[in-house]
Design a protein that fits this description.
This protein has 15 helices and 8 strands.
Length: 453
């Protein structure tokens, strides 16, 4: 019951929390289960919330046992469909209790239920797929074996891709792969169960790699991110891909990761050469407090003076709306962030805690404002209009603030570039060299791939 009560509120919260929330592949989920949903795990508590609110099916979650510490947490998490997993790194003496976990999972799947498993076993805020554990494969094959492979369990891989570690008003792209039919492994499992578990785990890994951006090393990820900033926009413009098309944006990034990985293995000196140019360019940007988008704006040839004047007119006219949104939404926004920081120092946990905690703070805030409106005006339609407009006003206030900050920064940068014309010419030349370098790598990689085919 608690699961179904919270789900619509969390669904609305995630819709408001992210600037762009895109899901691909819902059609890959059959109407009838049982299912095991296997997902990557880049953002701790945020990930199960994202998946639970995206899918129409009720889901039971496998979660580390350390969150089941108190009597209240055991009661609460059990009603939210969470099943404890006893990990060796948490407490080696408790690992034997995983027999109970497997039994619960087998029973749940036998009744047509659905499970969500994060087969990496850990959550780190990296664009990197960690080692895939065998738990999902063992549960799927074990449940089928108990039922003579008549359950028809399907494993559906889900890739969660955040643009900025799931921060407020960032983007999230969710890719859902076609299901793996576990019953097709029946003969192999009967011949060699251990080998079959490894094979199924390998297939899960391959599907997750396909639908996520995974960069092997932190140094490589930094280069990929900078290549996205400097070069990806040009590639997307050449291909006619709109900036809001996060699906094709994802595949462009995947292709960039592929060819940079190729050169790391086959010609690392070429990668090192372009990395030096990229590092030098970003060193210059950091020295004057600029990012690549500002330089790109200079290239676009847009009239900054006229554009800034129009922006300030917009800020003046829209200020009353901003003020209304700020006054009615700031306190729950502030307290949700404060709560998250008090609970944990880790950003990857703070984001999810702020989102879920904020949901309750904002609901209480809106109820109180609604009661005040009722006491003042005694008009039902006005009360509901005010309450339903508050979240949109708050969102507008946040975007107004961010837009104002960007405009002020752009104006300061414009005055700097106007006085230092030679410096911007230098930056543009460095940027063009980087783009030419990435373009050369891409063409060489494509030629190598064609030669292999």
């Amino acid at each position: 019951m608690l699961y179904y009560i919270l789900k619509p509120f969390l669904k609305l919260t995630t819709w408001l929390f992210f600037r762009n929330y895109q899901v691909n592949g819902l059609e890959n989920i059959p109407e009838k289960g049982p299912f095991i949903f296997a997902s990557n795990h880049p953002a701790t508590f945020m990930d199960p919330v994202i998946i639970a609110t995206t899918l129409k099916q009720k889901i039971h979650f496998l979660s580390k046992s350390t969150v089941f510490k108190t009597r209240f947490s055991k009661w609460l998490f059990a009603r939210l469909g969470m099943i404890p997993v006893y990990r060796k790194q948490d407490d080696p003496t408790q690992v034997g209790k995983n027999d109970q976990m497997f039994s619960k999972c087998f029973e749940h799947l036998s009744k047509g239920g659905n499970l969500l498993i994060f087969p990496e076993g850990v959550s780190l805020p990296e664009r990197k797929l960690k080692e895939i554990k065998s738990g999902a494969a063992r549960i799927a094959l074990g449940a089928e074996d108990m039922n003579d492979f008549n359950l028809d369990v399907k494993i559906i891989c889900i890739g969660i891709n955040y643009s900025d570690n799931g921060r407020f008003q960032s983007n999230v792209l969710i890719n859902i792969e076609k299901p793996i039919s576990v019953k097709e492994y029946k003969q192999r499992y009967e011949n060699d169960s251990l080998k079959t578990v490894r094979e199924l785990t390998g297939e899960i890994k391959a599907k997750l790699e396909k639908i996520t951006v995974s960069v092997e090393e932190a140094e490589s990820d930094e280069l990929v991110r900078r290549a996205e900033e400097v070069y990806k926009t040009q590639v997307m413009d050449e291909m006619g891909i709109p900036k809001k098309d996060k699906t094709n944006d994802f595949w462009v990034t995947k292709s960039m990761v592929d060819y940079l990985k190729y050169f790391r293995s086959h010609a690392p000196w070429k990668l090192h050469f372009i990395k030096q140019k990229v590092d030098a360019y970003y060193h210059e940007l950091d020295a004057i407090g600029v990012n690549d988008s500002h330089v790109r704006r200079v290239i676009s040839g847009k009239n900054i003076v006229t554009g800034t004047a129009l922006r300030f007119l917009y800020f003046l006219l829209a200020f009353p709306l901003f003020l209304g949104g700020f006054i009615t939404n700031y306190l729950p926004y502030y307290f949700s962030g404060l709560l998250a920081r008090k609970i944990t120092p880790y950003l990857e946990y703070q984001v999810a805690i702020a989102m879920v905690g904020g949901m309750f703070f904002f609901i209480i805030n809106y109820v109180c404002i609604g009661l005040c409106c009722n006491a003042l005006f005694h008009t039902l339609w006005l009360n509901w209009t005010v309450v339903f407009s508050l979240p949109l006003l708050g969102l507008f206030a946040f975007r107004y603030h961010m837009f104002f900050v960007k405009t002020m920064k752009r104006w300061r940068l414009f005055t700097f570039f106007y006085k230092n014309n030679a410096y911007i010419t230098k930056l543009l030349a460095m940027r063009n060299e980087i783009i030419s370098g990435f373009e050369a790598l891409r063409k060489e990689y494509e030629a190598a791939e064609k030669a292999i085919v």
